[in-house]
Amino acid sequence: MSTTAAGTEGTAVGRDRKAEHIELALDQRMQVRSSAFDAWTFEHCALPEIDYAEIDLETKFLGRTLAAPLLISCMTGGTGEATRINRNLALAAEEARIAIGVGSQRKALEDPSQAESFRIRRFAPSVPILANLGAVQLNYGFGLPECRAAVEMIDADALVFHLNPLQEAIQPEGQCDFSGLLDRMSEIAEGLDKPVIVKEIGSGLSREVAEKLASRGLVILDVAGVGGTSWARIEAARARDAEIGEVFADWGVPTPKAIRQVSAIPGVTVIGSGGVRTGIDVAKALTLGADLVGVAQPFLVAAEVSAEAAAARATRTIRELKIAMFCLGARDVPALRQVRLVERRGGLG
Length: 349
Fold this sequence. Notes:
By secondary structure, the protein is α/β, with parallel strands linked by helices. It has one domain (17-343): Aldolase class I (TIM Barrel, Alpha-Beta Barrel), CATH 3.20.20.70. The chain is built from 14 helices and twelve strands. The chain has helices spanning 17-25, 80-96, 106-110, 144-154, 165-170, 181-191, 207-215, 231-238, 242-247, 255-263, 279-288, 297-303, 307-326, 333-336; strands spanning 40-42, 59-61, 64-66, 70-72, 99-101, 129-134, 158-163, 196-200, 220-222, 269-273, 292-295, 341-343. The strands form three sheets. It has an eight-stranded parallel beta barrel with strand order 4-5-6-7-8-9-10-11, surrounded by seven helices. A two-stranded antiparallel sheet has the order 1-12. Helix 2 crosses helix 13, helix 11 (279-288) packs across helix 13 and helix 12 (297-303) packs antiparallel against helix 13. The chain is globular and about 60 Å long. Mean pLDDT is 91; it is low at 1-14.
């Protein structure tokens, strides 16, 4: 496939959009080039005074116990390749005992033949599974029945509404009526018998937006800040308009800044995601105030290979997190939140 520096010439609108998203998300050129987490550094503790074997990462989330505060972030579904990837991710989540989300289920609600690509409960029977719909769909015909159907389709523990105004504005098929969504999401949260999570998809939640959400009872928030996959680049590549993808490639709130701002709001559960690549990044996100940390692209790369590769990525990330905690003298997550994390001068976090 011929490519340009910022986009994919061979990508053509009219192909399977979900398949295109997978293909482009695996392309390193679609990633933001610098991680905001790199602007933060820990102070090494040469005398940790703890036993590595006693480090405890267990975390409660949605009424289930996780082996580590990790989430395989919502990514894909609705196409043949996504069926295999989601199953590989689910097997990895179950083996590692971490949470997992699926991609937008809109396609499966409109075309029930696609539902199987999202059905992962039999591969991950004991961990939290997150259903997922675009919040904007509440302005395009979806309501409480569709939200219930998305949850029931995959026996989910919660429903994620994703906010993606930048993606929709650039996407060739984008739906851009975001008016009144706060009221509509709040109404769904009141009527649904599962928790509702609100997340961005790579441009971040500001404190102002998070406060509006929390004031309406939407208190599980995934900041999904700038630092990982650039959906501006992906949709610009699909639209064959690489220039606009570069203009907006790093638009939004960097993940560390978003975590700090949102975690300061009383009563909010914060999922920190966006550019998390290593266990050290996980440690930084937790120290900044995240309750759970979401990882996407590294798991997608691994799951495209096999379930074993995805499980190995989870094991590696958890090991890296434990090593970081050991070298900080932090026996558990509450202790990790007390360690010193310094922002380098000129950092973007």
